[in-house]
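Below is how a single chain appears once it has passed through the pipeline. First comes the sequence as given, then the structure the pipeline wrote out for it. We keep one example in the README because the format questions we get most often are answered faster by looking than by reading.
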Amino acid sequence: MRLRHLLFVLASIPLVVAADPAAAVSAAPANVAYTGVNLAGGEFGSYKDEAMPIYGRKYIYPQIPAVEYFIGKGMNIFRVPVKWENLQNDARQPLLQSEVERLRGVIGQITSRGAVAIIDPHNYARYRGSEIGDGVSPEDFADFWGRLAAEFKSDPRVWFGLMNEPHGLKNPQAWVDAANAATVAIRAAGAANMLLVPGNHWTSAGTWTGYGEKANSILMLGYKDPLDHFAYEVHLYLDKDNSGTHKEVVSPTVGSGRAKRFTEWCREHKVRGFLGEFAAPLVPDGQPAIEDLVTYMEANRDVWLGWTWWAAGPWWGEYMFSIEPKGGQDREQMGWLLPHLAKGAPVAFTATVTGAGGGGTLAAGGQYKLATKASFSRWEGDTAFLDDPLSPTPSLSMPNRDIALRAVGGGRPVAKAAEVAQPAVRAQPTLTDPAARTLWLDRLGRTVRDDAAAGRGPRFTWRTMRATATIDALAEDGTMQLSIAGSGAMSAPWSGLGDRELADVACDLARGDQPERQAGAAFFLLLVGEVEAARLRLTQAGTHAAAVERAFSR
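Resulting structure:
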């Protein structure tokens, strides 16, 4: 069932284990599972002219410090608005890869820190001014999502929010048709990611059952996901017309009142909800109304999967709902949210395994390894979440719902199925590991020796468009001195640090927003094989990600 969160552990020996101790699941938290914020900016800019808005002038994506600030507060989900037109300049044509890579850098900043990133085409069911069903077809929309899903399907912490606030459509059924077509395309691309599905009429929770035969409560029952891995996304504001455009709050209990019918509808139809936008200004009833709404969702968390406040982002200024920190200080509304943040607590669901023994409770979004000594030919059931259904020991990406798997074929009995279960953890190199140290010295030593033979001294240099990083000294024990030109007098002695210490040093080097420091930190991360972390730093520095691969292959 879509509603059921885990409140128990199967009595049988678990076949699946958590990928890391931090992912161990305890009792259900009092707060809802996912709590976060919209990081706005990617949806800014206009397509009144044919020219694409200029990045950095008309629109912008969130930066690493913003993500780290909100994660530090305890948020674990971020809705990232984008423009359909920016990613796909012409309908049914390939995506613009430079824009995809820019978005990939943002999403990677979020998911690499263990949080969820929601990709949100912020287009109101329109493309270049034409609405879906009148100038833009459901097939156009499906083409876009099929291409975008293929780019991000490998990370279960990336959710796909199909569209922001469809409204005013001449034919509301066209949105249901488009959502279904997009879902088919997403699943056909091999993407098992979580989907957030809005309704018509601004997807307002308060009017979900309104508008007669055109009500979302009627039309959206026609939406189908073959993987049953979705939630309905609604928005809820507290002013007189639920628009979020007035500096007022109707009453301290207006939020729970407007959420009630949607909540009951979800429970009746065994579906879940996600509050994609909500907020209140600094008015007397603001904090009590937010407390009322969030507490109501917590009391009904069998329905409510989570929420994202509207909004944060660097270009809001004094916008009445902004929780972007100002002058290094928290906004007052952030204080309202702090007691209700999930603080990284994972939401758990049941993985039931038959034919090989076992099962258990697993954190959604985690990567796990199935392992058994059984002899069988394949897995059946929810195999969309397995990397290889034909392997006896596939990797499992746990979805946000209960799943069931069954081992099929073979004739030998299962022998202590769960004993060989191991977490799927990627090994990280450190200089304290002899093999990694040998690889290090070999990689660097060749350049060092060549430089020495040429009379240049021990020196290894990597250049980006913005900075030059140099190894000034390299000892037999791996001790090195790194300096970064272009960012002042900076150096970092390094003596066989492990990955965690290395990351700390890299962050120190990258403190501030200077591209030179980000490039230098990227170089430092490259040296121990932290390619993805380096890619994020280079994206921040404005350097093409391809430079990472070239530098690492030296």
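The chain has a mean pLDDT of 77.

See the next section for the split statistics.
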